[in-house]
Amino acid sequence: MKKINLCESCSKEKGVADPTGFALADLLLGLGENQQVEQVAQTEHCPVCGFTQADFKKTGRLGCSSCYNTFSDALGSLIKAMHKGTQHTGKIPARLFRDLARTDRLNELRKHLEDAVSKEDYETAANLRDEIRQLEGGTAQSI
Amino acid sequence: MKIDPILTRAGDWLSGGSRHPIVISSRVRLARNLAKLPFPGWAKKSERVRILEEIKPEVDLLPAIKDGFSEQLNELTATEKQVLVERHLISREHAAKGMGSAVVINPPQTVSIMINEEDHLRMQAITCGLDLEKTFQMIDEIDTALEAQLDFAFDEELGYLTACPTNVGTGMRASAMVHLPGLVLGEQINQVVNSVNKIGLAVRGLYGEGTEAMGNLFQVSNQTTLGEKEDQIIGRLQKVIETLIQRETQARENLLATKRTTLMDQIGRAYGILTHAYSISSKEALNLISILRLGIDLGFFPEEGRAIINQLLMDTQPAHLQNLSQQKLAAEERDHLRADIVRERLKNFPRPPNTKSPGQ
């Protein structure tokens, strides 16, 4: 254990100014550590809307869609307990669906390209490369 | 479109379409939110107004909503909002909203869209009888049209992101309103409700969460929204409702076979009170109207009576009465007016049969 003595301004700088963090009663009752961790988690706020986990405990509702990301650790087990599964399998917004389909197709084509190259089938590889470029948004160049 | 046509005419889900003796209506609602903006419950008033201004014009432009009713909630009176609650066109929570929230309803009252309820968008379709698939399609088309114009909060893992984690994923709640007097009279209802709950579906009262089951009417809906496709959820619900229909039909047959006199007595008393009371509460009226409806289902009253009964189910509700009288009524005055209306509407309703066999 390393003991250091801090003056008032240094202690503030190092973030140990909160006297409740060192409350004697907490130490004696052995509640100190866990409670501090929880307090930290509860004051963590969503960068988009400023919502905190304490607000969630109070209302049972979240602040904005980004809160799912901010509080993902705490929400994960809750969501797992209340639903049939943890992965959405239903409707996807059409815009996103097209993006996902495109990504899948690109991955597939890249794999075929690798295969073609390893088999030294350069004609197929060239065609695949053109198709990939087209999908990526660039125009296929003719050789 | 003004609110008057909505207030004076029952929706197609109650007055028209395919009729089912047990399933009154099918309903599917979807919850959607705009990405990166605070949910209505956390948003400041100015933010809610801005969100409303972004969403409402797009909703108003939907072909499915053409010539519909579209209004901000601060423009509606408490009674008007309550009528919409009794019609199941807005939620009780939404009725408590004002500035920054709105409701849009199509002319046949089969689609209603709440803006800034618990989520930025709560869209529902409601149809007569049992047809969950068609009802889902109706609202799915509206969702697809809106998502082309609005950027909905969506996560590849969690699906549509909603204010309450209980709705993430599909954001879909599908439900059917079922009339189960046979199971209630046969004292099997608790057992049935428990077993439905056990398989992950919710059974609630007439107006949803936390409301009492009145008039032997129950709402059965899915509890979970993540981990299954929309059609899987609907398929699961459909199966359970089919089982409920079977159980209710059996219970009615049992009552006819083993407790015919008790059943006839209930129907006769319901008729007697409804046609002769001078003061009646909405709860008593609803419970007795439910028994008359059962009487029609069982052939003790002619089928033509069903339209009158369905209309009475709505018109005896407190806000509907208030709206009809056009003046502020105390509870006691409402009970008097309710009894007057019921007597008047049932004036030419045939008496229950004198013998105990149906259709005579």
User: How many beta-strand runs of chain A?
Assistant: 0
Helix content of chain B: 40-55%
SSE sequence of chain B, one letter per element = HHEHEHHEEEHEEEHHEEHHHHHH
Relative strand content of chain B: 5-15%
State the order of secondary-structure elements of chain A, H for helix, E for strand: HHHHHHHH
Count of alpha/pi helices of chain A:
8
Gist?
The complex is a heterodimer of chains A (143) and B (360). Chain A is built from eight helices and no strands.
Describe, in plain words, how this protein is organized in 3D.
The complex is a heterodimer of chains A (143) and B (360). With 143 residues, chain A is mainly alpha-helical. Chain A contains eight helices and no strands. In chain A, helix 7 runs antiparallel to helix 8. With 360 residues, chain B is α+β, with helices and mostly antiparallel strands. Chain B is built from 14 helices and ten strands. In chain B, the strands form two sheets. In chain B, strands 2-3-4-5-1-8-10-9 form an eight-stranded antiparallel beta sheet. A two-stranded antiparallel ribbon of chain B has the order 6-7. Chain B is globular, with a radius of gyration of 21 Å. Chains A and B meet through helix 6 and helix 7 of A and helix 6, strand 6 and strand 7 of B.
